[in-house]
């Protein structure tokens, strides 16, 4: 059974940092593009960042560029380093693994940023 489990969420003051991790299990994810999405209260889920199979290519949403860094360790772990957090970053953050029609989600990790 495929599972993606996020960890590392929490409450932080504006300007602070958090590091999210995602551990995937149930299959090898070496051929999957991994990414992070987030959903704020009352809003739709939005793209945050993704990383290629090799880990050498990354893409970021404009709203987090220069503050967030996505990285990959092996085939089944992905991280999101979030620096200089803003109240607007408050959301549930979801890990995603995607390969063609296969699309897996984690259960989400809450991130709250106070002003």
Structure overview:
- The chain has strands spanning 3-7, 10-13, 18-25, 33-39, 46-51, 58-60, 68-73, 77-82, 91-99, 102-105, 109-114.
- The protein is an all-beta fold.
- The strands form 2 sheets. Strands 2, 4, 5, 6, 9, 10 and 11 form a 7-stranded mixed β-sheet that branches.
- It is globular and about 40 Å long.
- The model has no long low-confidence stretch (mean pLDDT 96).
Biggest sheet record:
7 strands, mixed
Low-confidence stretches: none
Mind telling me the C-alpha Rg? 13 Å
- E-strand count: 11
**Fraction of residues in helices?**
under 10%
End-to-end Cα distance: 40 Å
Tally of helical segments = 0
Residue fraction in strands: over 45%
Task: Give a nutshell description of this structure.
With 115 residues, the chain is mainly beta. It contains no helices and eleven strands. The model has no long low-confidence stretch (mean pLDDT 96).
Detail the topology: elements first, then pairings:
Blueprint: E1 3-7, E2 10-13, E3 18-25, E4 33-39, E5 46-51, E6 58-60, E7 68-73, E8 77-82, E9 91-99, E10 102-105, E11 109-114
Parallel strand pairs: 2-11
Antiparallel strand pairs: 1-3, 3-8, 4-5, 4-9, 5-6, 7-8, 9-10, 9-11
